[in-house]
Amino acid sequence: MVIVVDTNVFVGACLGSKASAAVIASCLQQKLFPLMGTALLMEYEDVLGRDEIFLKSHLSREERAELLDIFLSTCQWTRIYFGWRPNLPDEGDNHLIELAVAGGATRIVTHNLRDLRSREIRFDNLLVVTPEQLLQEIAP
What's the CA angle centered on 1, arms 17 and 106, to 5 degrees? Predict the structure, then answer.
């Protein structure tokens, strides 16, 4: 399954969220196939550099960077050639929809359901789900 992993899911994995960590682990095990684009990568790097977010994390800054590098090795780099805007209430989230559409993803995995589900433009094959929902869906 091709997916887009929102930054908040990766951060959740770094902070010890079991469901978020399981999604990232499934990507590393190539059970899920994440997409990555320029805007999402910049967001990951920005958020992972904010040490105040990770005060309760068991991972150091270096370990978070290493995990990101390993995760990126599983991602399919996807260029976005067409913007679907205006679409979401939070302009900063539009890149997730655009990445998913450009790469043919069927799921965006996020903790931010409210904002991503309230989009103006709908794509029939694209669902927005939480890590828990995705794990239920892919469970054997």
Answer: 90
Distance from C-alpha of 101 to C-alpha of 4, rounded to nearest angstrom: 10
CA separation for the pair 105, 125 (Å, rounded):
8
Phi, psi for 48 (deg, rounded to 5):
-65, -20
> Residues with Cβ < 8 Å from 110, sequence gap 6 or more?
6, 8, 9, 96, 116, 128, 129, 130
DSSP label of 127: E
CATH number of 2-138: 3.40.50.1010
Q: What integer is the mean pLDDT of 81-85?
A: 62
pLDDT of residue 95: 86
How is the chain split into domains, by residue range? 2-138
